[in-house]
Amino acid sequence: MKVEKQSIDDLRPEYDFDYSKATRGKYCRQLLEKGSNVVILDPDIVKVFHDSASVNKALRSLLELTRSTNRLTKRSPGSPKMQVPGGEP
């Protein structure tokens, strides 16, 4: 009994896509103009962050860092300003 090789193209014949008429990024400008939750990453960033989960994790840690640093660097209303050496007394 001879086994036939399965075709590499698994699409059915009725699914005939004509990619010659396709336009890359057809709706990109529309999304950018109207505003959306789509963010376009530069190629060097894409090399580091491969998926949205890693981008979200990095941004959340950055937000947490800025919040904690902001609390540390705020002056209380009654504290005197620090003098810069060599500045006016």
Summed up:
The chain has helices at 28-34, 43-48, 52-73. It is mainly alpha-helical and 89 residues long. The protein has a domain at 40-70.
Indicate the topology:
Elements (H helix, E strand, L loop, with lengths): L27 H7 L8 H6 L3 H22 L16
Describe the 3D structure.
It is a single chain. The chain has about 90 residues and is mostly helical. It has a domain at about 40-70. The protein has three helices and no strands. It has helices at about 30-35, 45-50, 50-75.
Record keyword descriptors for this entry.
89 residues, 3 helices, 39% helix, mainly alpha, single chain
Number-wise, the strands total: 0
Mind telling me the C-alpha Rg?
A: 28 Å
Report the span from N to C terminus.
Answer: 100 Å
> How large is the share of residues in beta strands?
under 5%
